[in-house]
Specification:
Length: 140
């Protein structure tokens, strides 16, 4: 897991909380923000975007990751996720898999509404990610 100092973690958490303000969540009223720190030091944010067809809803984590990838990023160092609830929230399984595509050791900040955060890693959250086994089995 990369070593990030407290000011870096605090800044990333702040960006996630700010991004949360842009969430579009008319159905669940559950607003989430995320901030991705790229290996080259840039920060990209995203907010959840709901849709009446729930399967089309986009999680904040993948919105932020998509912004980073669209800007040419191919390696991430950390992600902060900010959402309501006394213990904060962590990325869902789909987001974990997406994040693992761009870093096996990224730091994950679970931002709590009281301003504190818990630090873990994406590999700790998903120790056995999908790695393309279907492609390997197909001989491609």
């Amino acid at each position: 897991m990369p070593r990030l100092d407290d000011p870096q973690l605090d800044t990333l958490a702040m960006h996630a909380w700010e991004a949360r303000m842009n969430a579009y969540a008319p159905y669940s009223q559950f607003h989430v923000g995320a901030a991705v720190l790229s290996a080259d030091g840039r920060t990209f944010t995203g907010a959840n975007v709901e849709n009446a067809s729930l399967g089309l809803t986009m999680c904040a984590e993948r919105v932020a990751l998509g912004a980073a990838i669209s800007a040419g990023v191919r390696s991430i160092v950390a992600i902060a996720v900010a959402g309501e609830g006394p213990t904060g929230i962590l990325p869902c399984g789909a987001c974990r898999q997406a994040l693992l595509e761009f870093s096996r050791g990224a730091v994950v900040l679970r931002c709590r509404p009281d301003g504190t955060h818990e630090v873990t890693s994406i590999s700790a959250l998903d120790p056995s990610p999908f790695t393309g086994g279907v492609v390997e089995l197909a001989g491609i």
